[in-house]
Amino acid sequence: MASTKILEQKQQIINEIADNVKNSQASVWVDYRGLTVEEVTDLRRKLREVGSDLKVYKNTLTKRALDTLNISLDDYLNGPNAIAFGNDPVAPIKVLANFAKDHEALELRVGIIDGEISGIDELNKLATIPSRDGLLTMLAGGMIGLVKDLSICLHLYGEQLENNE
To answer: Which position among 9, 15, 91, 165 has the lowest Cβ density within 10 Å, counted as fewest Cβ atoms?
Structure first.
């Protein structure tokens, strides 16, 4: 039987996984087999740039942590997995998807986005969404267009009123 010290260490890891999944807006499981150490380091750096983190845990500890949260991902907990945690629901998915395009060894498997399990199809859809800054720029551009059109209409209406007097 394992010593109490080892059991306490394992319980700390289980609690860490559960807290990360619970407190992250996005948790994405990836298969990283075939990536070199340099590639994994590069991926971690890119994830850190968007406020995300990549961790590798034993599948048995991950399963126990997910069981405490009443989440079942048993079909995906085989082979080596890494989990990307992020406070933005889209940013880590975009980084992982872009990295996977350049590195065939990286495979997105499943994710938990805002507490909901998301399959690979949904992850790929989320990866195509523009970033928050991009969406805000599009919104601002649309609003500026409306204001511009309104100002043109008011200017033309004002000219029409002047011509009628």
So the answer is: 165
